[in-house]
Amino acid sequence: MKRVIVYPGSFDPVTYGHLDIIKRALKICDQLIVAVSTNPIKKPLFSLKERILLLKESIKEMKNVRVEKFDGLLVDYLKRKGARIIIRGLRVVSDFEYEFQMVLTNRKLDEEIDTIFMMPTESYFYLSSSLIKELALLGADISRYVPKFVEEKLKEKISHAKSQEKTF
Ligand code: COA
């Protein structure tokens, strides 16, 4: 039986930190699904379609991984995909509380589902998509945190937002 693992998140946008987790996860499964959340609570900078496209471009050289959108409960999505394992990146200690809540909530929803945590390379420990968006907005060099095409898309978004006098 194939071991399918789901890596969920908002990926707004994908960073080298996420890609680091994807590469690590691929070592322990047959098929990895990167599941992009439509999470209505978070107000993403990139549309769902853009987030998916950026991820697809980032993983195009990798095997056994695909990108999909998901909405509704994560545990229901896993069931539909025949998966029982969620993978999450664990970075700083402050991630722990939130992740702990999610694991326990998912477990209450479905006892069969388990979560595995992986730590990214330490140079990506402190990374988050918001931090990168802030750096990009302030004109800092973000090339060491995201692939080139993500950097370009981010700059495009920012100059568009600035021309519309919007902030995020
Ligand atoms: N490298 C860099 N950044 C990382 C990272 C890594 N390895 N891992 C996480 N992050 C960052 C993300 O960029 C994101 O940054 P931001 O807040 O600045 O945007 C932040 O950490 C949060 O991570 P993310 O994986 O995007 O989590 P999320 O909170 O957006 O997504 C879901 C959480 C989608 C998995 C969760 O809300 C969910 O399961 N939703 C479905 C509904 C459901 O079933 N709810 C009940 C479950 S508790």
Polypeptide structure, described:
With 168 residues, the protein is of the alpha/beta class. It has six helices and five strands; from the N terminus they run βαβαβαβαβαα. The protein has helices at 16-26, 48-58, 74-81, 93-109, 129-137, 148-163, and strands at 4-9, 31-37, 65-70, 85-89, 114-118. It has a five-stranded parallel beta sheet, with helices on both faces. The longest helix is centred in the middle third of the chain and has 17 residues, at 93-109. The structure holds coenzyme A (COA). Coenzyme A is lined by residues 8-10, 12, 15, 17-18, 21, 37, 39, 42, 73-74, 89, 102, 105-106, 120, 124, 127-130.
Order of helices and strands: EHEHEHEHEHH
CATH-assigned fold name? Rossmann fold
Envelope shape: globular
Mean pLDDT across every amino acid position: 93
Question: Biggest β-sheet, characterized?
Answer: 5 strands, parallel
Into which percentage range does the β-strand content fall?
A: 15-25%
Which CATH top level class fits?
Answer: Alpha Beta
Unreliably modeled segments = none
The span between the termini is 45 Å
**Rg, Cα atoms, Å:** 16 Å
Just name the CATH architecture: 3-Layer(aba) Sandwich
Bound molecules: coenzyme A
- Helical content band: 40-55%
